[in-house]
Amino acid sequence: MSIKLPRALRAPIAAKQFRKFYFADIPVDFDEIGELRKDALPDSGPACWLDQPDALIEVERRRKDGIIDAQQAEMCAKWIFDGYLIAPGLIGRDELDKAWNAYEGAIADGRVVVHPEPIGPDDPFPGRNLDPHRKVPEIRALQHHPKILAVTDLLLGRRTLPFQTIMGHKGSSQRPHSDTIHMTTYPLGYLVANWIAFEDVHEDSGPLEYYPRSHRLVPPLLSGELSIAPLEYKQRGAAAYSEKYEPAVERHLAAARLQPEYFLGKAGDVLFWHANLIHGGAARKNIALSRKAMVCHYFAEGAVTYHDLSGNHSRLHRNGMYSQPVVDE
Q1: Mean pLDDT across the stretch 255-266?
Q2: pTM above 0.90, yes or no
């Protein structure tokens, strides 16, 4: 029979263990936390370097000191103000074709299963697939592309760990949201997402929509602030999200008078966005048009990574919360 130490005795041990793996200023004892939610955690820094009040000054200092070059400084400034950046032609045509053909091959041989998810009887394309990188090495190689990791490492100021991929033949028509409630970090803000175009995106195909500056003008909308109770998502599923989260996002967008922009990228272009940037999928005006793309997410190494909506830790900590975060496999 194990004996649980009194909290006063356990706290120093827990703090030491926490600091072995995580960089948050305030250590936490996971044994004292039920569901992993923002309202169960203290407010802690450090803030991501490009989210700090003096971020632009720090960017210029690093440029002058030769730590980053002029192009990187320009990318960082764009990120600070708008919460996104576009890297034209970052991925080559041959690399795109290799990954996409491997994905189609995995569907054909049954390694990857996609469901119809039609929006009408004439919809010719299947739905999206979550985490095909775990079964298709060519997709995993694209997820770990050094040009992509160079950007994510720059934006978060730390080594980044790839987490999750989503492949799709068509637009998602997903309502506006930020990734913070789905893929959360302690401290907040240590996630970057990107969207890779495998073909030129047509304006009628349901392009990705995003709201510039929303990462600063819309607060992180998390479960506690929205009165999504502990265990509610586990019990009610998507209803808790659609009834409480999505309307709150719409209200904040309207209050801030934010308007969407649409990513009409060319094949090989990559859009990167901030953890709290509001984005979604525009309506598919022509369902005969494909919109082949892959979404990837990247956490900063050393951040606690969890899902505020579900209250679960991410699989980067699959060996237990007190463990070195690992590269997603």
Answers
A1: 98
A2: yes
